[in-house]
Amino acid sequence: MFTLDSMLWTMFPWLPVLLAGLYGTFVGSFLNVVIYRTPIMLTRRSGHSSQPFNLAWPPSSCPNCKNHIRARHNIPVLGWISLQGKCFDCRTPISARYPVIEALTGLILALTAWLSQASPQTSVSHAMVLMGLFSALIAIAAIAYDTHSVPVKLSAPLILLGIIFSVLSTGPDDFRLLTNTLAPKDSLIGTALGISIPFATIQVYRSLRKSRPGSRSANLMFAHGEWLLFGVAGAWLGWKSLAAVAFASAILMVGSAAFKATTRYKDDSISDHGKWNMGTWISVSIIAVALHNLVRHTL
């Protein structure tokens, strides 16, 4: 059957990949705003200031001289390069992480489009939904790296969206809103296992350490929504992918800790819990496993 999906892939095989990459850099530019402002918004008390503060306001400005960033300097990656990594007005250095997030998001979204194009089981709608998931996980990974925690307000909605996505992918072809290879049953089982197994592990840990709920040793490995990310993995990838996500995130966490130890990296402001950057590596692992699943579908 000739569909819009097949027409796009056949007539313009590289156009979706290029557009996805370009679109991804602009998404990455927005994610930089989300990464910086979301922790402030979540900790900001109501009535703390009469000035509004959200993702849209106030306009982006230099933290040193307070001058607004000009539109031409907000072009993803190219704006930072044209400024040579410094503020146009006061020449204060601008972190290289901004263009890195923009370029990385563009690369991941372009790769998603390319793998989706090569997979007969993946439609344009499925690819677009995955791009949204990956963008959210990139933001969560960066926020977790900065704050050493993952707010439940960020991780919990992704679980619900994953389940909804699987439900919308069921039914007769003529009434199917999305195309996905994950059945709602697998999504629900994955969500339940992704949340319950880590929670049970913590309970065992508490009992073995004979620690009280809320104590430092009890909370060393379970705080601020990191483990809910395993629920995200289960909801979006199914229960069969949970082991891969857990293994990959464990390898990345241990590798990160070993790197910090061998390079004598030290930050006394970071707690023992935060030094593992669990939220960052779990998010990265979900993206990696999801992309691996797309690769398997192309074979």
Structure overview:
- The protein is mostly helical and 299 residues long.
- The chain folds into 2 domains: 1-110, no CATH class; 119-299, no CATH class.
- It contains 10 helices and no strands.
- Helix 6 (152-168) packs antiparallel against helix 7 (184-209).
- The longest helix is centred in the first third of the chain and has 29 residues, at 15-43.
- The chain starts with a helix and ends with a helix.
Task: Summarize the model shown.
The protein has about 300 residues and is mostly helical. Helix content is about 60%, strand content about 0%.
Secondary structure: elements and pairs:
Elements: H1 4-11, H2 15-43, H3 78-82, H4 97-118, H5 124-147, H6 152-168, H7 184-209, H8 228-237, H9 242-262, H10 278-298
What structural keywords apply?
single chain; 299 residues; mainly alpha; 2 domains; 10 helices; globular
Beta-strand fraction estimate:
under 5%
For the residues shown, what is the average pLDDT? Answer: 78
Into which percent range does the helicity of residues fall? 55-70%
Choose one word for the global shape.
Answer: globular
Q: What letter string, H or E per element, gives the SSE order?
A: HHHHHHHHHH
Radius of gyration: 21 Å
* Main beta sheet: none
Uncertain stretches:
172-178, 214-222, 268-274
The class by helix and strand makeup works out as mainly alpha
Query: How many β-strand runs?
Result: 0
- What is the count of helical runs? 10
User: What is the first-to-last residue Cα distance?
Assistant: 22 Å
* Structural domain tally: 2
